[in-house]
Design brief:
six-stranded mixed sheet, 11% strand, 256 residues, alpha/beta, Muramoyl-pentapeptide Carboxypeptidase, domain 1, 8 helices, 2 domains, two-stranded antiparallel sheet, Lysozyme-like, 8 strands, single chain
Length: 256
């Protein structure tokens, strides 16, 4: 196996991969994860173990070392069940990067500077070779909000955006005002659910702020409004979501 990126200092093949499915020949998504394990070597062994049935295309250690495990042309097993913009089988549509971090259950901590610099360089390299829209550079939690929370609210999406990676906008500041949350019903909920769905989250606009809407709200906040992650659709959350939609050239919310 030959590395797809010159930035990969090591190639350590994982047996956990296959051909891309669903008629997908070229990935059009980039999904970022954290490993959620005690250290990088443990994560690497797990990702390369046939018993684990998980893998990724790249692993980025805390000191910035990059390892490639699966060729970009193949389907790595990193995302699991999920969807985005109504499209399932995220694994077939994406390239997956695992970023070494112990995660929320093992002492979640900020990502070191050498690691973020390496993630930025690797993403830039992939995006230079692949047709992946900015708004399809996503967190694992975005595509599987009811199951996953990585890479979490400490991941610096703003840094990546400043380097030309991903879709991001300055969030609306926290403040008072009306909000909607678990158990609320009616047209305001439908409108908010429609905004989440328009951006890509798997939420039915049924007018009930239930678990699916709460999980999608938490995922959105972890990515785009990190100052407060509580699953409540306050004015800051809704305003930030509206700003993101309005900034997409093809969005129905964009200015004429």
């Amino acid at each position: 196996m030959k590395a797809d990126s010159e930035l990969a200092g090591l190639v350590q093949p994982s047996p956990n991969h296959g051909e891309r499915r669903s008629g997908v020949t070229e990935p059009d998504m980039l999904i970022l994860h954290y490993t959620g394990m005690e250290d990088g070597e443990m994560a690497l062994r797990w990702l390369c173990s046939e018993r684990s049935e998980v893998s990724c295309h790249y692993l980025v250690h805390e000191d910035g070392r990059i390892v490639q495990l699966v060729p970009e042309a193949l389907r790595a097993w990193h995302a699991g069940a999920g969807s985005w913009k109504g499209q399932a089988d995220i694994n077939s549509r994406s390239i997956g990067i695992e970023i070494v971090n112990p995660g929320h259950d093992n002492g979640y901590r900020p990502f070191p500077e050498p690691q973020i610099a390496a993630v930025i360089a690797l993403c830039q390299d992939i995006l230079a070779r692949r047709s992946i829209p900015a708004e399809r550079v996503l967190a694992h939690s975005d595509v599987a909000p009811s199951r996953k929370i990585d890479p979490g609210e400490l991941f610096p999406w703003d840094r990546l955006h400043a380097a030309g990676i991903g879709h991001w906008i300055q969030p609306v500041p926290l403040g008072g005002g009306r909000f909607i949350s678990m158990g609320d019903k009616g047209e305001p909920v439908v409108a908010y659910q429609s905004l989440l769905g328009a951006y890509g989250y798997e939420v039915e606009a049924d007018g009930l702020f239930g678990e699916a809407t709460r999980f999608a709200t938490i995922a959105f906040q972890r990515h785009f409004r990190q100052a407060k992650v509580d699953g409540v659709a306050d004015l800051s959350t809704i305003g930030t979501l509206h700003r993101l939609l309005s900034s997409l050239d093809r969005s129905p919310f964009a200015a004429a």
